[in-house]
Amino acid sequence: MNARAIGTAIAAYTVLAGAVTVAGVYFLTHSGLYVIGTGGVGVLLVVLGGAQGVGGTFATGAEVETDVETDAGDVPIGSSWVRGAAGGLGLRVALLCYGLGLFLWAAVAVSLFGSSLR
């Protein structure tokens, strides 16, 4: 994988999108429960992003024939500026980076603004 594309995906999804989402939840609700819930959604997205790369069938020895030669991890998502910033790395990397950003920024918000949360 391209190191520059991964760096831009981290910057776009983890730093920018994660911070905007958690800040929006914090300023709209001032509720610690919602901020912690946002962190939980981030953990869920990280798990889904990691599990997307795991393929196969439940039956051992079963062969699956497909006519499609595409990998779901290579499907670009988001608007055109995000696809350009992420270098077209795909859904798996986007879910991992965005989920990590939600979790980390929620942890920062709870630790910094814990006394002002309801």
TrEMBL record:
Chain coiled-coil ranges: none
Q: Which Pfam families match?
A: DUF8070 (PF26267)
Which keywords has UniProt assigned to this entry? Membrane, Transmembrane, Transmembrane helix
Q: What range(s) does the DUF8070 domain occupy?
A: 1-117
| Membrane-crossing residue ranges in chain numbering | 6-28, 33-51, 89-113
Annotated InterPro entries: DUF8070 (IPR058383)
Q: What is this protein called?
A: DUF8070 domain-containing protein
Taxonomic placement:
Archaea, Methanobacteriati, Methanobacteriota, Stenosarchaea group, Halobacteria
